[in-house]
Input
Amino acid sequence: HTHTMASAEPAPAAAAAPAEGESGCVLLCIGMAGSGKTSLVQRLNSAMQMSGKRGYIVNLDPAVHALPYTPNIDIRDTVDYKAVMHEYGLGPNGGIVTSLNLFATRFDQALSILETRAKESDYLVIDTPGQIEVFTWSASGAIITESISSTIPSVVVYCVDTPRCASPITFMSNMLYACSILYKTKLPFILAFNKVDVLDHQFAIEWLRDADAFQDALDAETSYVSSLARSMSQVLEEFYQNLRAVGVSAVTGAGVSDLFEAVEDAKAEYFRDYKPVIDAQRLAKQTKEAEEQGESFKKLRQDLQDSGHVVVDVRPGARSEEDVAADSDASSSDEEDPSKELRPSDLHEAFQNAQGLPRPSV
Amino acid sequence: LSLSLSRRRMRYTQLVMGPAGSGKSTYCQSVVEHCNAVGRPVHVFNLDPAAEVFNYPVAWDIRDMVSVDDVAQYLNFGPNGGLVYCMEYLIANIEVLDEALGEFADDYLLFDCPGQIELYMHIPVMGQLVAHLQGLDYRVAAVYLIDAQFIDEPSKFFSACLSAISVMMMLEIPHVNVLTKIDLIKTIKRKSEIQRFLDPDPTLLLEEANRASSARQHKLNQGIASLLEDYSLLKFVPLDQSNEDSIGNVLAMVDHCIQFGEDEDVKIPKVPFRMLLPFFFCFSRSFNFL
Output
């Protein structure tokens, strides 16, 4: 009784995609190096333990020396960053990227664990590599983000170094980068202004809420503000509209409850606004794949007929065109089968297409 | 003579930036090979203290001064702390760079920069470096690279534009965005997909982005689309490193934005003095006859 066979039958109720109340929420902690992601994860961990919430923690930073918390899944258990550097003759950056790539090729295993854990946890916190674009602008980061977010409700927690954002130009650049991540991940977004024990984040909230106040600050700092900067700040106003911003301190623990409230709100947004889009896209992709498969089998059948052989339906657990059409009508019947979307071979292929690297030996 | 003294000669350089793996070193290699072929002097300075191997001659290397490996070994810094330390070390000892710059006084330079966005946003080193170069009469262009393979739908394209703008904002120098690794895109379908981002029609992109996002995000999509319409500097130039014309085209774009070659003196072939001597003799003889 294989998976392909199972998918052709009506799906059992137990495998249904998690509804809003049934699954924990993934917190994807992204932030620039030094913004305090790891400390924030540690603070979230201890806050969860204090309040009796069930947490599950994943570390994806292969180069971190020591973690202040004990992760449930640690990339360092799978990939040895120093050994990768040595084996492939890479520097520190290449080492981190390659380690993450190697991990991404095996991510289907981690994902199946996460899926099970999601049902019995309140929050799954994921700590990402220190240098931000290793995660946001890499094939492996995209694979990991997309595969998690298509099966488990996820939100992005973008960690900002508040004291470093006191300059309006830096603030704006940082917000632009945040907006860029919103477009890249396509997930509900929470801005976490970290280190509020050093500098209060009220100035940032004011700039987010009041465009004129930000414009004044911008004018005060630079004598010449380009028209691009002005237009950008207008565009960012729209970005701020859909944004939850909280101030937290990983050191003192201030604002952590606000962050969890924001996560709940963002989770609701995931189900309301993002999940329909993700589902629709997946369905479109599956329909297209099935069509392409159908086409090629039609051709094969034609070839066989032409050559005078007996026609047999060679597809294992074959899905006819009617099945596909029925799927697109009853939209929920196909979502439950994550193995369809996340076969290891797919990951390998995506990874190798993107990287052109040899198949890993680790 | 007085003319050339009164006007200081401008010098030209590119800062090659972009996320790790976007093809910075490959870009430098392509430009160097292209320039060697057309007989134009170009040198590459490596500014990435965590760089690995180069496929081109490096004129100056920050790793000769300080490298992340050394810093990690002796000061026990992690990869990021080490990088920040190295860049701050460079700014503190900028005279070493000046000395190296002096050796290539008149040549066009490329700086192969580290990719980490933190270096641009969180610490002022890149801004300080640009100001220092400008103080030495360099015209500095920023070349921001993004891997074309990541751009497969409008939202990814918007994402790339926004990350390019965030760097643009911090440095405030002439800026060219390049979509690298076009040659790795094989299928015709993907090629035509990339094509629409190279010469974007904001209205079409907006429609598609709206289809793929929830209603709450439509206004933001609209804002970014209108930015694309209003600011042509948000364009991406394609780079196919296997195609000589493509490399030439990117280089021409960068040259144009720092006005390379526009204020070069018009070269009048010099006539050596001794070639004029017969004329003098001629005249002096005629004087004698008179």
